[in-house]
Each structure stands twice: as structure tokens, then as C-alpha cells.
Amino acid sequence: MKQIVAIDGPSGAGKSTLARELAKRLGYQHLDTGAMYRAVAVAARRAGVGLDDSRGLNRLCKNIEIRFEHSSGGNRVLLNGEDVSRIIRTPEMSSASSAVSAVSEVRLHMVRLQRKLGRGGGVVAEGRDIGTVVFPDTRAKFYLDASVEERARRRWLELKKKGMAEPFDRVLADIEKRDRDDSTRVDSPLRRAEDAIYVDSTSMGPEEVLNLICRVVKDLEGGDENN
Ligand code: DC
Predict the structure, then answer these.
(1) What separation in Å is there between the alpha carbon of 71 and the centre of ligand 1?
(2) pLDDT of res. 226
(3) Dmax of the chain from CA atoms?
(4) Is the C-beta atom of 145 inside 6 A of ligand 1?
(5) How many A from CA of 2 to the centre of ligand 1?
(6) How high is the pLDDT of residue 10?
(7) Domain spans in the chain, listed from the N-terminal domain onward
(8) What is the predicted pLDDT for the residue at 122?
(9) Ligand 1 contact via 11 beta carbon (within 6 Å)
(10) Which fold would CATH assign to domain 4-226?
(11) pLDDT less than 50: residues of the chain
């Protein structure tokens, strides 16, 4: 039976690449929940709503539409029909999304939408609270981690490739701050679900991580069919 695969972990652990490739291999949809908080941040900036203004953000969330368009070329994130896939990845939106994601009203809207998109299974959902809050009952639950230096190095390379080069120290400081913010916020902080499989990818290649997780999910798919 098709599963809901939950992948949580800190920034830069490789969740996005893993989730995208895993979804491709399994024939599942990729649900990038971080992109949703990033889209809210873009909408808030444009509407001049403060990043900690819970009433303003609540109103904003009720009036925006966030959609994904899946194609072989990758996922596109649409905010009110506009493709914001690129702008959501800027360092400014990275920190703005961290701020809006700490607001409970925003989380309520996003979690509701995520559950709707994941209903029925056949999704690989990645984020910070997928295994703890969004889909706590799923059995395919993973926590992907790596040392903070390694995560900063990967993020630095990724930005450079996209032509958005930043000094390494700034990337590292930014990741450390996001780790702190994501794991100390009151509502749904980043933490490993007790029943999540812990994967430390510091010295593993992406293919190795992918093979490992793919095997576990396939076992779960097959196990369900034998029951
Ligand atoms: O995974 P990402 O870097 O694209 O996430 C952007 C921000 O959104 C990040 O600061 C953490 C937050 N986030 C969250 O709080 N819950 C999620 N399920 C996904 C992301």
C-alpha cells in the first residue's frame, strides 16, 4: 500500500533532494512543506504584514492560495497563481519563513493544507513537524540529520550554484540561528519523533541515503500488502 513518508530534520540536512528523488523512485508526490512557509513569508512581505503579527498573518493565510505544480522538471510553488519558486529561496525569505513558521495561526493553516494534500498516501512530505504533528500515525518516519558544518557547506554550494553566492561564515551563522529558532519555538518545535528512524548523513552520499530509505519504504509497502 502507498505510504505517507515523513522526513524531518534541520536545515540543510538534504531533506529536499532526498524527498524529491525518493518521490520520483516511488512514483509518489513530493510535498515540500518548507516551501509553503516560505510562500507565506513572501505574501506577508508583499502585503506589508509584520512577520510576528499573528492576526495579520491569520487574515493573510485565509486569503492566499498556495499550490504545487508537479512536473518532470521539478516542483513549482504557486502563490495566488504566480510562480514564486525562485524568490522563496533567497536568504531573506529563508529567515522570514522561519519567523512566520513560529506563529501558531500560520501553522494551523499550513498543517490543514498539508493533511489535505497528503490524504490517501503516496506522498513524501518533508519539513520539521511531519512525523510529530502533521502525520504522527504514519509508519514511514525518518529524521535526517548532519553536522552543522556539513549542512552549511552543502547550503553554501547550493547557493553558489544558483548564482546567489554568500560568504561561508554567513551561511553557517544563518543555519545555526535557524536551528536555534526552529528547535526552541513553542509551537511544534523541530524534534525527532520517538518512532522515527534516525539517519546521520554527515558522511553519507545522497545516493546512499536514498537507497536506505527507499528500501525501508518498499518493505512497508510490501508488508501492508501481505497483511
Ligand atoms: O525546509 P525549509 O528551509 O524550506 O523551511 C523554511 C522554514 O519553515 C524553516 O525555518 C522551518 C520552517 N518549517 C516549519 O516550521 N515546519 C515545516 N514543516 C517546514 C518548515
Answers:
(1) 23
(2) 52
(3) 54
(4) no
(5) 25
(6) 95
(7) 4-226
(8) 97
(9) yes
(10) Rossmann fold (3.40.50)
(11) none
